[in-house]
Amino acid sequence: MQEPLLKTVELKKTFGDTCVLNGISTEIYEGEKVVVIGPSGSGKSTFLRCLNLLETPTDGAIYFGGEELTHSTDLEEHRKKMGMVFQHFNLFPHLTVLKNVTLAAVEARLQERKKRKLKISKKQIVAEENERAMKLLARIGLEDKADAYPSTLSGGQKQRIAIVRALAMNPKVMLFDEPTSALDPEMVGEVLSLMKELADEGMTMIVVTHEMRFAREVATRVLFMDGGKIAAEGPPEEIFGAPKDERLKAFLSKVL
Prior knowledge:
9 helices
């Protein structure tokens, strides 16, 4: 029996007196494309941010690759294996596109060099990561923007660069937190198209989104969150085609 790549057990998160996550238990397997939907304030983004401990859970446990994360002594190592793409890109405005893509990958390799006492120069590491980054930029048709700064790019270009920046770390799973919600409508397609490519290539993905068509076409499983809980889950044909939960029916009637 395949072990889950990610697993949460009774995950809870409170902010003051407000309970945002109220006992989330789920398993995510390698190669799955899990799309998380639900009304605003249902806890979707908090759930995603808890998975790599950008938010510290109040209670419960998170397992990644079989190891319990909340008590891990090597959290940074685990985080390197989880690519995170945010709503607002989070590119460094003072760095070129190329430097944005390579920064974390170069730093990770320098740490690895120190830890394992490898005989490789910083110059060689930078050259190798630059070469990988250029291939990733070529893949999204933006290699000509390598020396440009984020302020000169469209929203769609920024988000695609944010995605390849995460890919530069060779993650085992990609977490997407509403990656298209800050984009103009005409730019949404170019970002979703790259995400579909990644899905087709077998990348494990957890996507919080309001794009129901994407959820229908790409998800292997849909989680519907409401009130800090998973109120319904199943394959997209069941969630969208034959919803049983009354709250899910009410939600879909507003968004479809």
